[in-house]
Structure prediction request, 785 residues.
Amino acid sequence: MVEVQFRFREDEAVNDPAVTVDAFAEQTNATAVRIEPGDDARALLPHLDRIALVEVNFPAWTDGRGYSSARVLREAGYAGEIRAVGDVVIDMLSHLKRCGFDAFAPAHPLDPEDAQAAFDRWDNVYQATGDGRKPIWALRHGV
Amino acid sequence: MYKYDQYDQQMVDTRVAEFRDQVRRRLSGELTEEQFRPLRLQNGLYLQLHAYMLRVAVPYGTLNSEQMRMLGDIADKYDRGYGHFTTRQNIQYNWIKLEDTPDILADLSTVEMHAIQTSGNCIRNISSDQFAGAAADEVIDPRPYAELLRQWSSFHPEFLTLPRKFKIAVIASETDRAAMKLHDIGIKMVRNDAGEIGAQFYAGGGMGRTPMIAPMIREFVPLDQLITYAEACLRVYNRYGRRDNKYKARIKILVHELGKEEYTRQVEEEFAHLLTQGIEPPLAELERIGAYFQDPPFEIGLADDLDLSDPDFRLWVERNCHAHKAPGYISATVSLKPVGGIPGDASADQIRLMADLGKEYSFDEMRVTHAQNIVFPHVRKADLYALWRKLDAADLGTANIDTVGDIIACPGLDYCSLANARSIPVAQKISERFAAQEKQDALGEMKLKISGCINACGHHHAGHIGILGVDRKGVENYQLLLGGSEAADTSLGQITGPGFDENGIVDAVEKVADVYLREKQGEERFLDTYRRLGMAPFKEALYG
Amino acid sequence: MKILTGNDLKTGAVTWWDGESWSLHVDDAVDVGEGGADIIAREEAARRVFAAYVIDGVQTDEGVRPAHIKDRIRALGPTVRPDLTLKPADPEALNWVI
Prediction:
């Protein structure tokens, strides 16, 4: 199994084997699920209360469907871990985090200094994405 | 026009630092070319035929003289003394060195400019009407909405790796001067029966190998829901746009395959959900942005007449000037299409001259048009003759806007690594063939557009006359299309038949023009005659 | 003949494999036979070139001529700006491209 290289959660990491989105509904004892780019994250919404770990796979980092999957889950109130796995590269890190990812398990470990610089890159952001950061328009208008 | 605050400046500066770091990692070998390519593209850096090419964003085509001067200085300092204005109101440089690029971006940031998202599979520079804020026929200035969308789309974390590139245009008048319905999303600002301003959304338009005219998907989005609606459109596209085939990955294919109704249904469902998420900036933000787009201090009581005794000036006024909303003012278009010239190219000196003239004569404001020309939006009629004299002395006074000489042409095989045939030499030969003033007069409005490959950067589908360069067994060949339009009466051109060689295509355009002159009724434009008669008489003249 | 072309990583300039290194001049290009892929792999890994590929060319009395017009334009420069090509003083150069 690939190591989680960066994690922004206080709770104990769950490392149950993740099942596919299709299998998750039937396997009522499963607590971890893996979303592939073509999967519909909304299929998981009826089961959020028993999910402890969502892995979102990026077979290629240029396929951005996983960003929407994470936001769909966060917007529905899912508060457990969302872990980016697969072809996770330095230049995605801050954007993934903004969309609700809080753990990162790149297939090829990243240079820790470059990764830290990437996480710290943006002091401010233009959009509200549900990650708790105040967008620039909110700072401008004190909302 | 808009001015950055500390936040906007910080975002651009951060991007410069990020790209500098990416270039460092590429040069040190941490990044392979395959890994670096999508990153450099998101900063507008391509590899073209002869070198790297850098595309600099001109948001909604508006720029001030300090910015224009910087564009000229960059052409001298980092390139070979010229730049190329593009159909998306940007400028690109053809001879850029990778190692210089971070410094170029740093120079641009000093005048509130950048190359953010000018390429790549993300939301691109937002285009608009070149007469925004000046045109007599607009409902409202569309640029504050374009600026709001610019900020929302810049580094939007969910939409940086879309299935394909994504182009948005915002207009606000019935006369479409920005090819709005040929964009992934076209937005038309409208006023409803209650007198409120809102946004009409069109989705799924585009050119390329499968041209489509965007259908309207929503008649009226209230201003306090604009960003939320755009986000819903993008999320549905990001999730369901095709990724198995790059030629079917644009939103137009998704809208076409789902059908407009189903795509709209999904957007509305997502929109209803997103309305609960608090992602919409407050209206105060639109007001803040709008304050930057107030009218410049127009003088009241100016005379509205022009001395047209100089016949060359008179012609230029007739061809290149556009009615202004303020009495005593006019909008003037500088043609970057001199006879035999390279459409859209301007030398560093010409760029700096336009910067000076924009400051002196147009309240420090200029526009880039999608037809690759430059506009001085707010010129006092009393100054127009002096302005024209100075432009003309620098080979910038050509009187040919929207005539057969005002050709849109992509860079083609002279510069572009995707091209199959050269576009520029064909444009040059056609403009020379029709150089005589009487010919242009007789032909009137005739929009000719040339692409050097099926990607259609030269908008050939939307030309009254379109030309598409193809590669026929290693030899350049040119197909002819008739009947396209990118104005409010948007239509797609039809191919006439077998293609022509380089000289043959010039002759073919002349034959088409002759049929028009023979058949035209009254004040009919070429396009009207074609629509009335159909392809038959033109085909007969070409191949009969 | 098979010749190798690519771009210089730092400057983007079009270059041609001359048997030992990368030249700006197509006439320096050598026949790489079947060895192109190996040279590309080695040279790209060393970051001396990128976007490299093998093309067909012909050795003529005037020099090496790439088979396709696209690579002849790359070898010379834009046909619409002779002043910016590698042979600004040679009016015959454009005929060589076409």
User: Anything to note?
Assistant: The mean pLDDT of chain C is 96.
